[in-house]
Amino acid sequence: MACNGGSIIASVLEHLKLEDVQLLLENRGIPSIGEKEELTDRLQAVLSEEICEFEWEQGDVPGCHAEITGAGSSMFTHHNSVYVFGGMDDERAEQMSLCRWDLSKEEGFEHVHYRGVIPAKLSAGHYAAVYGNELWVFPMPRNHNMRRVYCLDLLRYRWVERMVIGDPPGDTHWRRNLDAVMDGKQLLAIGGQAMDKLYSFNFESRTWSMRHCKRLLPSWTFGHAVRRKRSIFAYGSVQGDFGTLEVRQLDLATLEWSRVDTKGAPPPFKTHSSAAVMADKWIIHGGRRAGKFNVTNHTSVFDFATLRWSPLMAEGCMPVAREWQAAIGLQDCMVVVGGRVDIPEFEPIPISSDTMCSAVEILWHRPPSDAQPPTGRAALMRSVQELYGSTHLADVSLVVCGRHMPAHRHVLAPHSPVFERMWQHPMSEAKTAQVCISDLDCDTVELLLRYCYGCLQELPSDHSQVIELFKAADKYDVLGLVQECVARFRQLTGADEIAPLLQVAAERHSEELRAVCVDITANCLPDVLVTNSFRELTAGQPELALNFVRETSIRLGCPTLSCPSDEGCASPDSASRPSTSCSGSTGKDVQLPAAQAPPTPPRACLQQPPQLHHHHQQLPQQPEQVEDQPDNVIPEEPRQRQRAELDFYHQHPPHQQQDHEDQQEQGERGVLHVDVPHRHDDAAASSSGEDSD
């Protein structure tokens, strides 16, 4: 179905609260006092005018049919008139009629009677262009004589047959996949699955020529093309009739193709749809999805200015569902004529005839109305934004690196309970009206203030700057900004940034940041383990790194490392023994060669993070001199065990642990039992067999 803007807006407004409706009205300078039903109707009218920049209008074609199926009719303009030429009628018979609509009159389309040699019926369709005062009609591929071109004098309406030089586009698959655009004195024809050729026809010399394109992209199903300045834009689908639309650009200077990085959700590909350009909008209308008999009236819009796809938001009558129609874009509207209408589900599929559409539909573009100044709470919000950085009514100053930043207590206090307590209690900040900040830089404090005043439009793109902003927001308990930073970390954090972010999460005791680290590391654990930042974290804070790897391993669904008994746990020195064995979940031990044996993890084996095995025997007591060490220094022996366990993970991350059979000799001392996930591919099975003894 077509996108009916009014009904969509109404369905959304039904779920809004009264205060939300009032705020939306106040933002637009509309009166906002009254009952919800009254205010909702008022807001719907305003939003429809604001959002729905198009409007459908429908009328009947007087006395003629401009139907189009298959290769169809062509549509063009000349001297303030719109013309429709060719096409098929209800009985699928070719017609060479011409209809004209004088835009200065209201009569609509009228038949044009012409003289001269009337062109023979083009059984395989045609494409046409206007050059000067002549209409040039070119046969599509698969016609019997493609070098025979017909020209119509649009002043006298007289046909003339002309011969051309050179080879026109003749590939069979170009019949469906061809579009022609004007470029000065040339007509450019583009199409095909590979888009590897560009045909050009010179109207002065009546000569066809062909050039090969460069940097070809994957083959696709071609839709339509249009020229914009010195480029040709084309849309189609790489997945054929079942995919979504993709936009490509051909540079006419270099003849190189490139893929356009579009925004928004691309619409599905539809066969036999129409395409027209209105200002900066490329409007794709109607057509039929692959494998379906029913056609659609859905309309999609591609904005050349923003490179964004969006559904058409329009008011007015619902457009007719049709395919093979013709459309042309004018200055402020798009005209749609002809085409085959939908096949009712209760009727048999016609074999020798089609039901054509005689309706003329016009899609008008409505420029947005001038915005009104906000009122009520919206005006209050704007006044607060205007106070940012102003000394007007400022009653507090933030001192950062010797710089005084004016602020307002009534603005900061609602965002930060920390600031609120400063000024509610007899603290030095309340007496001096100054807040000295020594652990943050000026840029970070500015971002914090911008958020509190509602002026922060975008967070920094540098990961370290977002970390500093998170520290500031967490320090002053600005919860909204904390959530914004966490969401930003999910966008910016990569393997190299995991270790610094994990340290901040531990420093600020933030479970949200730790969850971000775990979620991201679960997708790239091997890359994280080999980064320099994580190795430095392992050397400086092995317990933090170890617990994090444990938690990530469990998130990946990997069974944990475990020692079957106290006697089975080996010391770090046992890694130099001649052989070691890995025990899979099946219970059998597989001996590994000494050169490939991983270092044996310490007694603190992985179970549930961050706790150690409670059933293991107590670790040996440290020497007396350990008691004199500071509290934040980890004794040497536990530090060695943690490093040994982390070294094991560095060399054998969970995703690389191989599948082995059930263990058979659990009592053997020096045997490492590793529970690893099953791998079902043949490569893993063969590798396990080669490593086993």
UniProtKB/TrEMBL annotation:
- In which residue ranges is the amino acid composition biased (Polar residues)? 573-588
What are the start and end residues of every segment in region (Disordered)?
A: 567-693
Q: Does the keyword Lyase apply?
A: no
Q: Which residues form the BTB domain?
A: 394-461
Q: What residue intervals traverse the membrane?
A: none
Pathway(s) where this gene product acts: Protein modification; protein ubiquitination
Q: Quote the biased-composition stretches of kind Low complexity, using this chain's numbering.
A: 684-693
Q: What is this protein called?
A: BTB domain-containing protein
Q: Which organism does this record belong to?
A: Coccomyxa viridis
